[in-house]
Amino acid sequence: SKLNAAGAETVARFQAHLRSVGRSASTVRTYGTLAGEFVAFTGTRGGLGCCDAAMIGAFVATLTGYQFKTVEQKLCAVRSFLRFACAASLVDGACLEAVPAARSARQARIPSVWGPGEVARIVEAIDRDNPCGKRDYAIILLITRLGLRGVDIKRLEFADFDWPGNRLLVTQAKTGHRVALPLLKDVGWAVIDYIRHGRPDCDCPQVFVRHMAPICPFSDQDHLHQILVKHARVAHVRVSEKRRHGMHSLRHS
Q1: Which residues of 185-201 are buried (b: 16+ CB within 10 A; e: fewer)?
Q2: Quick check: helix, strand or coil at residue 135?
Q3: Least confident of 62-66, 222-226, 229-233
Q4: Which residues contact 187 (CB under 8 A, 6 or more apart)?
């Protein structure tokens, strides 16, 4: 079901509210999309003004079969949207209480991890004689050695490096917390090698940039997963959809 004009306007107001309270761009985008699904659903049953516990129950029933994390995210977004809608007098306050907590399946997956040998083979397989290789090597070391999230690596700026103090100061996109991490020697030298000998001319403050025109920082829509897959294939480390081994798994490792 599609959003009508009034529904789209309500979702846009919700996203503006999220921005105003300092939620990250990725949260604003994701919650907007998921709230749009919910508002479109209410549109098939008389509209948002008719929202009640029975309608929320019917929406929750449509989530059957999704993975636990997906259901949890969708319900969090709906709960956030309904808080906004209650404050704006678009729905009755009782609606918010009708949103259930996501029940974790007993067999909820433990995060996938890479074996130490696999990580070493991938790192060794990176060709550091070319600019892209220097960039990818530094990125993968930052993930495997310091556990940085992909989004934080994409946003990493020159000012975040405290070279005299051998520290990396990162404001995490997911939590908003500023953390200080030790700048390990191999990680620091990999970043220096990239900056000096691999990074294209670009006056943006972000350290890591795309190497194909236009030369610019990675956007929130750019995924670093393909970088990992490329080097894993060279290293003959198996990557498949079933295995769910991506950058996030590398961070967990």
Answers
A1: eebbebbebbbeebbee
A2: helix
A3: 222-226
A4: 138, 141, 142, 145, 146
Number of residues assigned to the chain: 253
Q: Which two tokens stand for residue 117?
A: 């040998």
Q: Which are the contacts of 212, defined by CB distance < 8 A and separation ≥ 6? A: none
31, 239, 251, 203: CA torsion to nearest 10:
-80
Task: Take residue 208 and report the two structure tokens written for it.
Answer: 């890591």
CA distance linking residue 65 with residue 70, whole number of Å: 10
Tens digits of per-residue pLDDT, 89-132?
A: 999 888 888 888 766 555 555 556 667 788 889 999 999 999 99
Distance, CA of 86 to CA of 16 (rounded, Å): 16
Please give the single-letter amino acid code of residue 122: I
| Beta-ladder partners of 162 | 167
Q: How far apart are CA 198 and CA 167, in angstroms?
A: 22
> What span, in angstroms and rounded, lies between the C-alpha atoms of 186 and 194?
12
**Which pair of structure tokens corresponds to residue 156?**
């990493």
Query: Each residue of 28-38: b (16+ CB within 10 Å) or e?
Result: bebbbebbbbb
Global pTM?
0.60
On the CB side of 77, how many CA atoms lie within 13 Å of its CA?
24
Distance separating alpha carbons of residues 158 and 249, to the nearest angstrom: 26
**Cα-based distances in Å from 226 to 43, 218, 231:** 38, 13, 9
